[in-house]
Structure formats: structure tokens, C-alpha cells
Write the C-alpha cells for this entry.
Amino acid sequence: MTGPLTWFKEVRDKYVHPSKLSQIGVLGMNERNISYISRYNPRHLYPLVDDKLKTKEIALEAGVKVPDLLGTVSEQHSVRDLIKILPPEKGFCIKPANGSGGKGILVVVRQDENGYRKSNGQYATISDLERHVTNILAGLFSLGGKADVAILEDLIHFDDCFSGFSHEGVPDTRVIVFRGFPVMAMMRLSTRDSNGKANLHQGAVGVGLDIGDGHALRAVQFDKPVLLHPDTGVNLMALKIPHWEDLLHLAVSCYEMSGLGYLGTDIVLDRFQGPMLLELNARPGLTIQIANGRGLLPRLQHIERLGKKQRMKPADRVAYAIEHFSAR
Amino acid sequence: MASRTPFYVLVGLLLIAGIGLTLHRHMALDIPWLPGETRQTWSIEAKVDFEAEGEEVIASLAIPGTQPGFTQLNQQTASPGYGLAYEERDNGKRVEWSIRQASGSQSLYYKVDMLVDPYAIPSESIKPPEIKAFLEKEPYATAAQQLLEGATARSASPYTLARELIVEFNNQKQTAELLAQVKPRTAWLVHLLHQAGIPARQVHALELEDGRRRQSLIDYLQVFDGEDYALFHPQTGKQGQPENLMLWQYNSGPVLEVIGGTNSNVTFSMIEQEQPFGIALNQKFADSQLLNFSLYDLPIEEQALFKNILLIPVGVLMVVLMRILIGIKTSGTFMPVLIALAFIQTSLLTGLVGFLLIVGAGLIIRSYLSHLNLLLVARISAVIIMVIGMIAMFSIIAYKIGLTEGMKITFFPMIILAWTIERMSILWEEEGAKQVLVQGGGSLAVAVIAYLVMNNELVRHLTFNFLGIQLILMAITLMAGSYTGYRLLELKRFKPLTEIDKP
């Protein structure tokens, strides 16, 4: 008789009572979709963030720094001319304009006699790159398989202060901006498990960041707390983002430029140019809560209580968030 | 944000209307909640097709009456422009259509409701046919005589003789093939039994199976021993009437006669209905009621179609609940429902094995296609062609090794399978085999759950008999669509959040 009973107990131990979650204000997927995304993000603005070319356009108009555009491929017949628009002798990045969840991003770190060295250390030939572009154009990585455009971007030279924190790949900072206020932030560090990608569900490490000064609060991999980077062994708690306020200002300005009330901004720190906007996300994920060790709801409700009348300037909103959402 | 009140009013109205309609059908029309409390009736529709030659046409179709096991309830015909007569000839009841002039293809319908009734009193006693002498030319007569002699030596009564004759036909394959050149086996059996002085005839029967369309009649051998008779399957020699077998034509004579037309044939559609005995007998009166808005008014072919269509909302609701309340990931939103529909046709085990075989083999071949650097549309088309090829191959292999179950693999929606393979393959390349297992397993689990619910006798009974249920399903779906609580799997995912030690 103990068999099924202990089994049931083991299973129950893996779950938590919903009241405990709502007590600490954890935002669930259904509530995110109904109460935040569909309420604050007007549908007609989605193309601005889903299409990276358009995002780049509005970002340049608004004076937000983005990685340099090297060229685009939008027709199948111009794939043959890919080699002409590739930069000679330096690294670059090919991505689909309508890609979702980091799909279809190919990073070439440098070029040498062996060919194009990808971020994972393997080499690609020009025909591999052409095949990748063909796949992008055919809509392999876009939502619903729509025909797509391939974007060629300059490589980001990520800041030396992050060396050791990331295995291959660029560490990026995700800031959730709710009605113009930065409410929660985390840094995503790629690992060997995640194949150099910064996607948390593929095994990247998520480090929750203090909105107040950008230092690490907590780190998780596969939703479990970790202290050291699994590949490099660096103490993740020592992570502190430089230029933190600049980064928050950049994140906040995305609210004005996109018009989306509930927004995920992905920002990288470039060694030479400082914070740069990588992409925007109209449906940011919920794992940021696990990385930070706290729920989003109290902060979201805090902002909602400010009412619709508030007309704070971006700088004031950053200051407000630093004052109220700091962990210290 | 707009007020939620209109939404709750809408949901409330849907619920009230749905429950009201359902209760009305239960109370006013006495349709039971449970499928078991009913009498089974079969609505059978015969469709006569022929090409008229532009002159007068007479079409005459044999029709069944009350017989052991089945009571005839009511019958109707649909045949615009035709004169109609029901006839009682000495070789059974027939319906006769006539018209002065007709040309082109013609379709005449005859529909009859038969109640499954162990206490049926046959409308006419079944009389043995008179013994007739058949003449056949040599060498067939001698060959047949040999079979008869063999069978007579090993038999003791009319029934045993009939059985042994069929055994003889099955054993003496060469002789049987020779005889089959002249006339079909059943005709030979009748011929030889008459020669032995035993009254026998060929009857035409219909195998009853719910929702079947375009069926044709099967031959049976009816052998008399005095006033009693027994049915024999002319191929297997199995004696007795299977439970789901109804005799359509059980007097000597043709099933269909058409004068003034060519290419005539008759096909049957049938559907099983569950009705209380009282209702079954009073069907004629129930038809005219205003609120008796029911699918039973449709032609049987459409009814059979609707029986499955009305199950789709149930399957869709399962997907909604699994995704919103549980949080299972599926590949393709409603792919599980389509797979579940295929499972209904194939039975669960065959379906699962077939699905895994096709998708598994498809993934292997697809991994080769991905090296060919094809455009997306062409690649998916190639996958579709590949899936069709595999289905054909698996069917042939299954048939060769005697697995008729394997033939059912053709019920799978091929385009959907192709997309599934494509998606899984991309998932594999991008996120590894584990995600393929998670999402593929999730889709399959949802499909199996949807299948178990949709294939449930009670659910089938309720959805078909109570259209109000659809409104209730709609209301539940709307409510699920505005559920903001946690998903079950989120309770597990966010558990680490509750275990942080507060400093």
C-alpha cells in the first residue's frame, strides 16, 4: 500500500500550493497574457518589435544605439551575392528579421584560412552560410513560416568585464520595462549546455540583477540556483554591470519609441560604444522571476497604482525605479 | 479596460441556453442521459443510381420487412418527379418508382428505420422456395456432382450437407475455380442443394456498422429444414446469423430491377441511433414538433458525418484545458485533435504504432532532405510525398504479413503528418532530441487524452443527441480563455521561488 502513497507524496512535493505563489506575487503565463500583454501591448505595434529591421529603424530615429547594419538579403536570387556584402576579414552576425526566441542567429567570430569561425569554434563554408540565408528567407525561423529577410550585423565587442562569465556567445541583459519603468532585470550567460545561446530553457545561466545598481542577486540554470558558472567556475555573485544607469536609460527609452506597455528589452554592453539595444520582445518570458528570486506582480501593481495620469520623464522613471525596486 | 460584465452575461446566457436545451430534450423527448437505457435502431438509406436513357423508367428495389431480430418502424423515399408504389409480390416486398421520361444520372432514395428487437414478429412467414431443377452443361455438371457426392457422404441432415458442401468448395480449390467460371459460388450451392432435394436460396444481407456509407449487400445462403432455416456464410461455412447482420432481400428474386436505365447500382448508408422504445415507435409524430430541432432530420449520410464533427469541439476543449490549465507543450496547436480523430478510425494501439512508425521514419528521411538545401515549400512538399510513400509501403507490408489492422494507417491526415515531421525535425536541429521528446510526447499525450474522451460512449451519445451541449462547451472554452490563475506545471516550475531563505 505504501507504493502509490509514497509516489503520490513524492509527486506532491515537487509542486507548490498556488496560494504560496500568489503570496510572493509570481506572475503566471495566463495572467501575463491576459492582464499585461493583451492589455498594454496594442496588437498593431507588434510588427515594430517582431521585425528586427523595423526595430532598428525606430531605434535610429529615437537615437537609441544599435549594432551597425552591414546589409540585408531579401530575395533568393541575391543569396549568390552574399559573399559580396560580407565584411572582409572580420566577424559578423546573420539573423532573421522576424526570428523568435533567438532562432536562426549565426555568429561568425572571425575569418581565417579555414573559413568562417562560428562562435562555437566550428568552421562554416560560404555555402553553409548561403544555406542558412536560404532557410531564413524561406521562413524557417519566423513565426508561422512567413517569408523573411536576412540581416547582416556588425559583431558586438563585448566588454572585458564579462570575460569568464560567459562561455562563447554574448551575454545580454534583459530588462522588463512596464509602462516606461524598469521593473526587473537579469543577465543571460551562455554555457556549453546552451550551445553558446542565451536562451534560458536551453541551459543558459540567468543572473537576477538589482535594479538599484546592477549587481547580481541570484543565479539559476535550468530553474535551479547556482553559484558558479558551470563552465568557467567564476563566482557569479561577483557580477556587476558597469554603466548601469546608462543601460536603464536605454531600456526605458524603448518604451517611448515602441509604444508597448509591457516590454522586454535585450541590451548588450559594447566595449567601445556602451549599451546597445539588441532586440525588443513583446512577450517576454517569466523565468526572470526565478533568476531574481521574486515575483513580478508586486512591482507591476506598484506601477499600475501610479495611475494613468503620471507624466514622468524617462530620467525620472529610472530614478523612481532605482529608489523603489532596489533590493538594498 | 472594457468592463467584463458583457462577457459574463454572454457566458451566463450560453450556459443557460445550453442547459435549457439539453434539459428540454431530456424531459420533453425522453432522450436518456446514458447511452445504455435505449433501444437501438438503425436508419438505413438505400441509394439507387442509374443512367436514364431518356424514355420511361421503372425502377424496383427489394425492401426488408419485419424479420427475426429486427422490427421495421417507418420508411420513406425521396425521388422528385417519380411516381411511387409499395408492392407486395410473391417474391417479397418491393418499392417501385416510375416516370414517363427521364434522362441523365438519376438518384432515388429509400430510407427505413429498423429497431433491434429480439421479440420481433415477422410480417410474413418465411416460406421455403420450391425445389427447382437446374441444368448445367458438361464438364461443370459432373464436377459439381463430385463435390455434392463428397459432401453427401459426410453429412446427415440438410444443415450438415450445406456446411460440408462449403467445406468441399474450400478444399477442392481447382474444382471450385472451374465452377466459378459459370456462376458464382452461392448460385452453385443453391443449385446443388436443390439437386439434393433441399430447399435453399441466396439471400442478400447488410452488415450493420455505425456511420458506414456506400456499403453494398453481401450474399448469404439460406438453407431450409422443414419450416426452420439457417444462414450460412458461403465462403467460411459459418452457420447462423451474426448479430449485426440484417437480411435485406430474403425472397428469391433480384434486389434491383431498372427498366429504361443503365449502369444501375444500389448502395447503403446506415447510422445507429439510440432511442427509447416509445420514441422509436412514435417517431412519425415527433418529426413535426417545432422545438425538436435535431440532426435526425438530416439525410443519414450527413448524420454519420455529423456524429464525428460534433466530437471535434470536445477534443478542442481538451486541448484548451491541457494548455491553459496544465501547461503541456504541443507541437502545432490543434494537431493533437486531428491525430485523435485518426485514432478513432484506427483504434488506439494501431494508431499509436502507426503514428510513431511514420513520424520516426519520416524524421530519418527528413534529416537527409535537410542536407539538400531546399526551399521551404518544396521541402515540405517532398515530406508530404514521402509520407504518402511510407503509408503505401507500410500498408502493403502489413497486408503481406497478414496484418489487416496495418491498413488503417491510411486514415492519418497526411498533410498534418508532414508538418509534424517538419516541425519536429527543425526542433531537433535547433534544440536537440530532448525537446522533440518533450513536445512530441506532449502532443501525443494530449491526442490520447482527447481520443479517450472523444471515443467515450457517453460523450458520443451526449454530443449527438443534445445539441445544447455545444453551447455549454462554448461557455467553458470562453471561461478557460479568461483564466488568469497558475498552470499546473508552473506550480512546479516556480517552486524554487518559494524556497529562498529570507535573510
